[in-house]
């Protein structure tokens, strides 16, 4: 094996946090093994003292100066009573936070510098620089913490079972808990206006937690290091020597940070767990969460090659065997560096950090990355760009630009929906983000339909179905068959881009990796538990927000202190207060369990849900007559009587005139108009909370959040005995209201019905089509329904056809301007599950 030409000098200086900041002193006030009790607020003297510190530091993120001013004012109000404020000043509060034992893992530091041969003159500055890496010891960090095959959380994958088989060969390992160490790293930028704006955080999690916990960010992913980012002059950046140094610096840093875990990979160690029990544990290096650029660095391969298989860079669309550690070592031993790089895509002069750890194959441990590989890579960087190129190739630049403008107008005119980002100017952004790409995926397919050939529409459909399938929390053998089918259809229909001359090759790493997803799911469980979305979300909490708390003068040391304090406060909150109540924000995941009785009782299909009327804001209408005028629905009183007869289980009279006066329902004329309803339902994906639940609003109001009118659509259970769309109807909600009849309150909705077009979804888009329903008299079909029959919100996108739409159409005009719509099954994971075949 080639030996790196770099000699890395590692010097260690263990530094407690108080040494970084003279105002902070760590005091250990209780033993590590003691468990916090509900009435034990140590080191705080009371619940109020803890909650004040938590509010000021974690929630309000108040500066020390503002804390001091607040406490001074508080002290002034207490002088007459002879009392004292809870904290004298900010320093006393920080000192109390430091006394917290929970989350008390100290930052350490080590330095790496280049010590190999240097040129005789014009020595690059990077060769004389010293690179500091700050980290937490991962061993200390986590010491405190069916009849058919299903893949769900990480521990359900084959990789864990294979590791268990390997470990069990040694009888001394028996009765031990296996803890897979999951790592993730990704550079991030906090400001473009400062000289030091790049940070390189390293995150650590363990595979023993569920994917839902990871997505809920309940301290399941920990920041354990800030890796070094070498800088040099532009002339030295492309040199092989500098590039190799950067690679080896990365791997050597990881090896050093994880060194204390290595003994416990071959011999059990006793560790204290968060539940107060001691257990024998065995560590093992698990998957590494990284985007493609990071995967190239990890696998020590040349950019453009696959980090998982032996496919040639120019022929990635063909099948190939997987990399193995043994195979790579043989190639490195037999061939020179140039051959390795040009023929096999191997960077042979870098030693991967996994080489010194048992049972660690870096090629196998590369995790799937839905965000960069599929959403930002294949969808945004490839297909969306290819559509623009295709239109210019086929129609010429002028006509293509006109079509692209109409596509943008279609996107801008799509009706709002909970959690859907609005695109007032279409899809042309100055700076794309992952959230932009995710939002565009929800609406792009119906926007291009009619402007591009069927093959392109079906290509997008296949990719969207693939994305939603692999994002499920639970995948079965049937799901894997469906995933493979989407991959096959995607590669089949995307050939139109080559045939039209739009592109020359499909040998692209982001697209190629789709082929590996079925195997990766079998290895590691549901991919949503290993996606870079998790680590990118963590950037905000541990890098970007703490950076803006600092004074920007040597901010890293201040950021370390802030993260230390945040970890203590979060650990204390979790230990003492638990996970807290359910958060019910608009279109947000909710940490409620799926087995809550009230929700199950109200279920109308296989998914639990509940509708509650919220936001009682009075409109102009105060009576039924006023509401009829406001909605332009003069038959509303008659429709309401029909609704009350149905609620009373009265026979199905064909005409209200057949009912005697004594049998007619009695109700008061006074009503309460309500602007929205809240739906809580189960979602089989990463957008749900720990219990699998999601919360969203269904709106019907003149102005939503001080914006234009918003009248949503929703699904209604019309035949609970049938699955999916066969048991549901769609309606447009004209208004929510409640009234009292015979001492009983009825929460209702005035709705306008849609009819299905056909008995199956559209063959090209995979979406059901509906149009406005009409009565026998050619009037719009309207009704009053009980909110208990509403299932959840629905999103409809017009069938735009082939002609441009007027620029005057805005998003709040959509449901009133068009008559025929797609039921958007790609608006979120819930709609996709609801409107797909049962096996999906």
Brief summary of the model shown:
The chain is an alpha+beta fold and 840 residues long.
Architecture overview:
With 840 residues, the chain is α+β, with helices and mostly antiparallel strands. It has three domains: 107-300 and 347-367 and 530-576, no CATH class; 373-529, no CATH class; 588-654 and 665-834, no CATH class. Helices cover 35% and strands 18% of the residues. The strands form five sheets. Strands 15, 19, 20, 21, 22, 23, 24, 25 and 26 form a nine-stranded antiparallel beta sheet that branches. Strands 1-2-3-9-8-5-11-10 form an eight-stranded mixed beta sheet, sandwiched between helices. Strands 13, 14, 16, 17 and 18 form a five-stranded antiparallel beta sheet that branches. A hairpin with an 8-residue loop joins strand 17 (693-701) and strand 18 (710-711). Helix 22 (532-549) crosses helix 23. The protein is globular, with a radius of gyration of 30 Å. The model is unreliable at 1-38, 142-146, 576-585, 595-609 and 650-654 (pLDDT under 50).
SSE layout and pairings?
Layout: E1 8-14, H1 17-20, H2 47-59, H3 64-78, H4 90-98, E2 107-114, H5 125-128, E3 130-136, H6 138-141, E4 150-151, H7 158-168, E5 177-185, E6 188-189, E7 198-199, E8 201-206, H8 211-216, E9 222-226, H9 240-257, E10 269-272, E11 278-289, H10 292-299, H11 325-334, H12 337-344, H13 362-365, H14 370-395, H15 397-412, H16 434-448, H17 454-470, E12 475-476, H18 477-493, H19 495-499, H20 509-512, H21 517-524, H22 532-549, H23 555-577, E13 588-590, H24 597-601, E14 609-614, H25 624-631, H26 636-647, E15 672-674, E16 676-682, E17 693-701, E18 710-711, E19 713-717, E20 728-741, E21 744-756, E22 769-772, E23 782-786, E24 790-794, E25 796-798, H27 814-817, E26 820-823, H28 829-834
Parallel strand pairs: 5-11
Antiparallel strand pairs: 1-2, 2-3, 3-9, 4-12, 5-8, 6-7, 8-9, 10-11, 13-17, 14-16, 15-20, 16-17, 17-18, 19-20, 19-24, 20-21, 21-22, 21-23, 22-26, 25-26
């Amino acid at each position: 094996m080639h030996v790196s030409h770099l000699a890395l000098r590692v010097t260690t200086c263990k530094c407690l946090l108080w040494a970084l900041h003279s105002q902070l002193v760590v005091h250990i006030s209780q033993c590590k093994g003691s468990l916090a009790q509900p009435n034990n607020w140590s080191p705080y003297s009371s619940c109020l003292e803890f909650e004040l510190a938590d509010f000021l530091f974690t929630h309000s993120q108040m500066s020390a100066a503002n804390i001091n001013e607040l406490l001074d004012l508080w002290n002034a109000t207490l002088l007459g009573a002879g009392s004292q404020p809870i904290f004298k000043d900010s320093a006393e509060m920080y000192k109390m936070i430091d006394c917290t034992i929970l989350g008390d893992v100290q930052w350490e530091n080590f330095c790496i510098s280049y010590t190999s041969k240097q040129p005789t003159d014009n020595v690059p500055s990077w060769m004389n620089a010293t690179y500091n890496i700050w980290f937490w010891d991962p061993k200390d960090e986590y010491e405190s913490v069916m009849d058919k095959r299903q893949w769900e959380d990480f521990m359900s994958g084959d990789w864990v079972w294979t590791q268990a088989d390997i470990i069990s060969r040694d009888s001394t390992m028996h009765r031990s808990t296996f803890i897979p160490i999951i790592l993730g790293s990704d550079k991030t930028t906090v400001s473009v206006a400062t000289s030091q704006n790049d940070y390189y955080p390293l995150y650590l999690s363990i595979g023993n937690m569920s994917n839902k916990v990871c997505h809920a960010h309940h301290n399941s992913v920990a920041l354990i290091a800030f890796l070094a980012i070498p800088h040099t002059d532009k002339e030295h950046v492309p040199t092989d020597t500098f590039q190799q140094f950067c690679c080896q610096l990365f791997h050597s840093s990881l090896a050093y940070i994880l060194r204390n875990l290595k003994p416990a990979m071959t011999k059990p160690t006793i560790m204290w767990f968060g539940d107060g029990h001691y257990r024998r544990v065995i560590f093992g290096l698990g998957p590494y969460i990284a985007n493609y650029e990071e995967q190239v660095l990890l696998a020590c391969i040349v950019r453009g090659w696959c980090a998982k298989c032996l496919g040639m860079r120019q022929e990635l669309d063909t099948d190939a065997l997987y990399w193995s550690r043994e195979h790579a070592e043989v190639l490195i031993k037999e061939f020179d560096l140039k051959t390795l790089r040009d023929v096999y895509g191997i960077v042979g002069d870098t030693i991967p950090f996994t080489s010194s750890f048992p049972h660690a194959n870096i090629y196998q441990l590369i995790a799937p990355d839905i965000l960069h590989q599929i959403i930002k890579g294949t969808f945004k960087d490839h297909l969306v760009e290819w559509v623009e190129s295709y239109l210019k190739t086929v129609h010429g630049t002028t006509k293509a630009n006109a079509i692209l403008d109409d596509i943008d107008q279609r996107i801008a005119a799509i009706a709002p929906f909970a959690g859907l980002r609005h695109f007032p100017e279409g899809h042309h952004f100055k700076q794309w983000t992952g959230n932009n790409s995710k939002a565009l995926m929800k609406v792009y397919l119906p926007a291009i339909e009619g402007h591009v050939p069927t093959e392109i529409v079906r290509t997008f459909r296949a990719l969207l179905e693939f994305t939603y399938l692999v994002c499920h929390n639970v995948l079965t053998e049937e799901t894997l068959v469906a995933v493979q089918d989407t991959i096959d259809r995607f590669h089949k229909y995307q050939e139109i881009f080559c045939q039209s001359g739009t592109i020359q090759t499909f040998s692209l790493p982001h697209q190629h990796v789709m082929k590996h997803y079925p195997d990766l799911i079998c290895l590691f469980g549901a991919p949503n538990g290993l996606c870079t979305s998790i680590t990118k979300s963590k950037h905000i909490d541990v890098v970007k927000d703490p950076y803006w708390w600092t004074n920007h003068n040597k901010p890293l040391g201040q950021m370390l202190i802030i993260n230390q304090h945040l970890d203590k406060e979060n650990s204390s909150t979790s230990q003492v207060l638990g996970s807290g109540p359910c958060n019910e924000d608009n279109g947000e995941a909710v940490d409620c369990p799926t087995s809550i009785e009230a929700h199950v009782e109200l279920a109308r299909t296989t998914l639990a849900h509940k509708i509650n009327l919220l936001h009682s804001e009075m409109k102009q209408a105060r009576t039924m007559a006023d509401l009829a005028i406001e909605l332009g629905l003069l038959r509303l009183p008659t429709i309401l009587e029909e609704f009350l007869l149905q609620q009373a289980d009265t026979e199905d009279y064909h005409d209200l005139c057949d009912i005697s006066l004594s049998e007619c329902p009695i109700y008061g004329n006074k009503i309460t108009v309500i602007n929205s309803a809240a739906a809580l339902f189960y979602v089989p994906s990463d957008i749900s909370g720990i219990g699998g639940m999601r919360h969203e609003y269904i709106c019907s109001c003149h102005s939503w959040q001080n914006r234009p009118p918003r009248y949503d659509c929703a699904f209604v259970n019309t035949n609970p005995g049938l699955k999916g769309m066969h048991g549901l109807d769609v309606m447009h909600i004209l208004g929510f209201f409640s009234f009292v009849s015979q001492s009983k309150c009825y929460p209702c909705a005035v709705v306008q019905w849609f009819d299905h077009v056909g008995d199956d979804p559209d063959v090209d888009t995979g979406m059901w089509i509906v149009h406005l329903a009409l009565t026998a008299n050619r009037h719009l079909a309207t009704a009053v329904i009980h909110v208990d029959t509403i299932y959840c919100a629905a999103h409809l996108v017009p069938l735009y056809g082939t002609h441009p739409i007027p620029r005057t159409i805005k998003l709040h005009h959509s449901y009133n301007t068009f008559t025929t719509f797609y039921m958007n099954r790609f608006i979120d994971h819930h709609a996709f599950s609801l409107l797909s075949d049962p096996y999906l």
